[in-house]
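Task: encode each sequence below as structure tokens.

Item 1
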Amino acid sequence: MGTAPQYQQAFASKRVIVGITGGIAVYKTAALVSTLAQSGARVTVLMTEPATRFVTPLTFQALSGNPVYTSSWQHTEANDPQHIALARSAHAAIVAPCTMDCMARLAAGRADDVVSLVLAAIDRATTPVLLAPSMNAVMWNQPSTQRNRAQLIDDAYTIVGPGDGWQACREVGPGRMSEPEELLHALAAALHPGATC
């Protein structure tokens, strides 16, 4: 894993939204959030309710140094509704892990949890949104998942991974979430097209 100083040029003063959905790969997201924060990024973490069953919001609050949003009904900004204010202020967003269910919600244009709601308010023509799929190999290979993947690419989302490897279901195959290092490189490339990190 790269060190925070390695990424300071890429992430210093950048506002990055990290969406977390309910997959076991959430443990990798802790390293992602920590490195972003240490690199000078202002990280806002959004967690679906299933995600909070794997790792508590307090963990990500400590790592990011900022409040964690777990509900579409939290309103801490004074003027705009939470999802509009967060979306407008972001330089980039990433969902890691992005479950099969989250991919389906985004492909269908749903906005019924805090992650999908905030992403729905981001203009992807100006703000990159990356998705890091994470699921069982059979789930990844489902025709519906592959249709959703194609639709999300058409809708200007950037898909990072998944990789092949050992999975929590005790099988080896595609669907394993990309490692934090790969996600950091992808975020840096999205924020600074044409630059090398």
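Item 2
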Amino acid sequence: MSIPVVVLCGGSGTRLREQTEFLPKPLVQIGGKPMIHHIMKIYAHYGFTDFVLALGYKQEKFKEYFSHFDIINHDVYFSKDQLGSLHEFPLNVKDNWRVILSDTGLNTLKGARLKRVEKYIRGDTFMLAYGDSVGDIDINELLSFHNEHGKMVTVTGVRPPPRFGEIHHNRGEVISFSEKKDNKAISVNGGFYVFNRKIFDYLKEDEQCDLEYGVLEEIARMGEMMVYEHTGYWGCMDTLYDLGMLQRLWDEGNAPWLKKGGDDV
């Protein structure tokens, strides 16, 4: 049985308002492809091709995109038959994905979104990703780590990319000035999870049920959470600055998440 991947795609992306006024954040494009496509390619590279997208804000845009997925992403041959009917034949289709698009509510928090797609999860183990983050994470290693420790939740710890330079001063007199540096000592939640389905016992369909606040805090106190430390690349698309950084990496031909996500994104 294939392990499903839930992707949280319901938020409105207020800090990307210039882009998300008309599109949900996971459909904002990097290199001509929406972020959700990049994320799914990462998992598909490792053989995980069953996806459940938990939708909310502008959920109809996802249904439009996936309804025309082959036409948008592949060469298409059009032909008319003798009766004048038009037929479409996608060429070189490589994506063998199963995608469930589930409207989980407009203002629903993450925990409730996850609970509302429980009916689509088969088996004891599933994965979850945020719809705005990419990385060169080895999904097989992440899953193996989860299976080995036997606890309910695995969260991927990542090193946040440097954002601002540092100024040290004494009453206004600059002592040292240093540009952005990687902080290797700080690990943050990268949004690539593995769960056992027992997580659903701690979730509610009430739209105010969150995931990180409350539920995961309790599970951590119970000793049922482990962190998979990822020291490679990770990036999120939270602001216009982040979007610009991801696009620049793409334009330079140096998008790290492609190294393990395939070159046919």
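Check on item 2: Residues 5-70+96-261 form a domain with the Spore Coat Polysaccharide Biosynthesis Protein SpsA; Chain A fold (CATH 3.90.550.10). The first strand starts at residue 5 and ends at 9.
End of task.
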